[in-house]
Write a structure and sequence with these properties.
By secondary structure, the chain is α+β, with helices and mostly antiparallel strands. It contains eleven helices and eleven strands. α5 crosses α7, α8 packs across α11 and α9 crosses α10.
Length: about 325
């Protein structure tokens, strides 16, 4: 961190006493009871995963500056690094699973482009709740009798739950919650090869977007030409490779502006721009407003300013 206090609380994973193997199972009722100061409605940026199922009730959630309506069947997956807040979960019931990065190796490529909110039909929700309940029972048994616990079992049960959740389509209840780049919709033409190309490109963008701002850089690294990456990205997401890359850079820019008090020059440097003027031009072109103005508008919506406070989750503590 190049400057002082963070605007949005950075939540770091710290397992609750008795939590086995880096996973914790709770529910919305428990979250509300332990969060009497309603810190859940303030923006936060966890360094762990939160997977939540809405079994009943309605509410609202915001993830990476997109608003989502919550209803029975909504499945929310907050990945590490997302800026999010529970705008309204007073009437929501259902399980929440917290787990640290690396707990489910092999899902990284898929999760990178998965929408933050999906909708499960009644049958899918029923199966997902059964999977979550199985995980909860195993979690509680492991907490009571650690010597009898199997370290691999919670990971397998969580993997089954995640696969069930990913089987549902993205939740399009709000226009702002449109698909954010997942390849789940398939690709045209030679679908298998095109999807493989896009997934390779998406993974490379995730690894290098702060260094490489041109599609040609990725084409050279991956061994494809720019047109191949563009076709594959358009087939998977409906947008070109450059637009996909620009949107990823823009998202991180918004996260930095919202989550830190870095000056615009610091954000530009963090994202690999030569100077603040280039960054401002890029941001204005993508977001239709200068970065400083976007930060002021977001901050006016009630951003938390206190660091070091207890997080709304029992297994997560805000950064000191």
């Amino acid at each position: 961190m190049e400057s002082g206090q963070e605007a949005v609380r950075q939540l770091r994973y710290s397992p609750a006493v008795g939590s086995p193997h880096g996973v914790e199972v709770m529910d919305f009722a428990a979250l509300r009871s332990m969060d009497t100061r309603r810190r859940r409605v303030l923006p936060q940026r966890p360094d762990f995963h939160v997977l939540a199922l809405i079994a009943s009730g309605t509410g609202a959630h915001e993830a990476d500056f997109r608003a989502y309506r919550l209803r029975p069947g909504s499945a929310v997956w907050i990945r590490p690094g997302m800026v999010h807040r529970w705008s309204d979960i007073d009437a929501c019931e259902g399980p929440l699973i917290l787990f640290r990065p690396g707990f489910l190796p092999g899902l990284t490529a898929e999760e990178a482009g998965a929408p933050a909110c999906r909708y499960l039909d009644p049958q899918g929700l029923s199966l997902a709740l059964l999977a979550a309940d199985h995980l909860r029972h195993e979690y509680e048994a492991a907490a009571r009798a650690p010597l009898l616990a199997s370290p691999a079992l919670p990971a397998h049960l969580l993997a089954a739950l995640v696969l069930r959740v990913l089987a549902g389509p993205p939740d399009r209840a709000r226009e702002a919650a449109a698909d954010d780049g997942s390849a789940s919709g398939g690709a045209g033409g030679s679908a298998g090869g095109s999807i493989a190309v896009f997934r390779a490109y998406r993974a490379a963008v995730e690894a290098h977007f702060c260094e490489w701002h041109q599609v040609a850089d990725y084409a050279r690294a991956l061994g494809y030409d720019v047109r191949t990456l563009t076709r594959a990205t358009r087939a998977a997401t409906g947008t070109g490779a450059k637009a996909f890359l620009d949107q990823r850079v823009l998202l991180e820019a918004k996260r930095l502006l919202a989550h830190t008090d870095l000056p615009v020059t610091g954000c530009a440097r963090r994202l690999g721009f030569r100077d603040a003027a280039n960054f401002t031009t890029f941001f204005r072109r993508q977001a239709a407003t200068p970065p400083a103005a976007w930060r002021a508008a977001y901050g006016a919506r009630g951003v938390a300013t206190s660091a070091g406070s207890r997080a709304p989750y029992s297994g997560a503590v805000a950064a000191q």
